[in-house]
Each structure stands twice: as C-alpha cells, then as structure tokens.
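We close this part of the discussion by returning to an individual protein. Part of our work consisted of pairing the sequence of a single chain with a tokenised description of its backbone. The amino acid sequence and the backbone structure tokens for this protein are reproduced below.
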Amino acid sequence: MFPLNQPELERSPAPLPDKEKALDLYRTMWRIRAFEDRVYQYFEAGRIPGTVHQYQGQEAIAAGVCGHLQRRDYITSTHRPHGHAIAKGIPLEEMAAELFGSVAGCCRGHGGSMHMGSPEYGMPPASAIVAGGVPIAAGIGLSCRMRKPGSVVACFFGDGAFNNGAFHEGANLCAIWDLPVVLVCENNFYGASTHLTLANKIPRLAQRACSYGMPAETVDGNDVFVVYEAAGRAVERARANEGPSFLECLTYRRCGHSRRDRNQYRDKQEEQFWLARDPLELARDRLLRENVATRAELEVIEQGAAAEAQAALEHGERAAQPDGEEALRHVFWEGSQ
C-alpha cells in the first residue's frame, strides 16, 4: 500500500478565507454530515427504499470545490451524490423526498439516491455509471463555452473511474477543446473493495492527468481550506477560458462502499490513520486555534445542521407518493409521443 505519511498531507496550511466564507464552508460540511448520518439511520431501520452510497469523510471536497461555484455553474456527480447535491444548493427537503420516492423530490422520485440532481440548481441527475459523468461534463462544458461564457463545470468522480475509457475520452475532449471543466478526483483509495494499488502502478493519479496537457495537482482532500484554495485556481482558469484542470483530492470514506458494507477489507492501520483525520474536526480545530470563531458559534452551526437534517428526513417520509401514471412521465418508452 502507499505509505501513510502522504507528502500532500505535510504541506503548510492553506490561508484561511475571510470569516464569512470560512464559516460557510464549515456549515456546508456539517449539513452534509448531518444529512448523511440521518439517512444512514433511516436506511438501517428499513425506512428508506433502494440503496445508498454515502459521503461521510469526504465533505471537504464537495464544500471546498462548490464554495467557488455560482448558480450559473454546473456539477456532474456519481453514485455517491448526496454531498455534491447539498454543496451545490439543492434543498435538503427535496433530496429527502427523492430518497423516499416522492413526487416532491428533486427528480420527482424517478432518481432516488444514485441519480440525485436538479437542473434548476445546475446539477443534472447524477450518473451511477462509473466515469459516466466525465463525458457529460465535457458536453456541458462545450455548451457553456458556446452559450454561457464564464460558466464552469465541476466534474466529481472517484479513483475507480480512472481506468475507465469514459474518463480518458472525456478528459481528452476537455483538453483539446480547452473546455471550462474542473476534473475533481475524490481519491478515497478504494474502488468498491479494490485498493488503488491493485489497479494503478503510479502513486498519484494526477501524474496521468498531466499527459492530457492540463494542469494537475494532488492535495489533502480532508482539509477544506486546502481544497478551497486549489479549487479556486482551477475555477479561475476555467472562467478565464484557459481550459480544464485536474484536482486529485486524497480522502477516505468513513462508511462502507454501500448498504451494509462493514469495511472488512481495509487495512486497520490505514483506517486508523485516516479516520483520525476527520475533515470536520480538522476544520473545527483550526477555526478555534486561529480565533476565527468561538466554540459557541461553531456549536450553533453544528446543532442547526442536525436540526435541519432531521426536519428534512421527517418531511421526506411524509411527502406524497406518486400514482402509477408517474412512472410513465418524464421518461422515454416505446410508444411514447
């Protein structure tokens, strides 16, 4: 396995943004964590149908990248989309309703967990196909370049997507056409249960991205301020029509791959190292250490996120269920007009 003393984790800390932005990033991470924790509890109790792929542990990436995005910008996501959706601004109530298959959901119950999204908020429904969002991001990026100059696309995917042809085709399109796309690899070291070293010979995936002629860097994906700083450079390039960038964020999911996966395949020393680097705790410690906020201020954010998540799940469970005809709406089927 790759050594635990990752050099990218030993760099000098990134400069903090102003207090308002720093607390906004902290709030986004807590909203993601609180929502995911409540979803897990509901799912384990058998109250949410289908399956879920959760995001606990990777909150700093969604928050740090989307912290630079505007309503006019876009993101594409994966089978693990909840954190991205929250960071892009989709209301928790709509997300919760979607998980319960309600017509009040952001996709009217058609998408569920793995296809979360809302074009209204710049997030087309997530693609559960590994690497499937990369060529979609290239297409949206081309549309932005032609029709909405200044808009950018952030494309999220995992390390498991890196050996998929769709990634390489999409990345190459972004490069040769200088598309305003930021390719964000959430490298949590496992494609389902397969460790990164069993599928790649190189220690850093950013090395391969450089072969497409785009800037690429590897950063600490558990430090929201590091991600925010690096994403700022990439988004600025995209807005200036200078082409795509690749951002490899080293992180670690605190949950299993999906459903009731208990992570029995993970090395215990590796797991201990990474779980001790919780992105929420890292951010809290720094905000307190540098006197950006008081403990009371942070507790208000944390408690508010928990209350909002609980209210959203309660709303979702009560939301109206579709009638049979809804299954034929907004989809293509043989005989449709």
Q: What stands out?
A: Residues 77 and 232 are 19 Å apart (CA to CA).
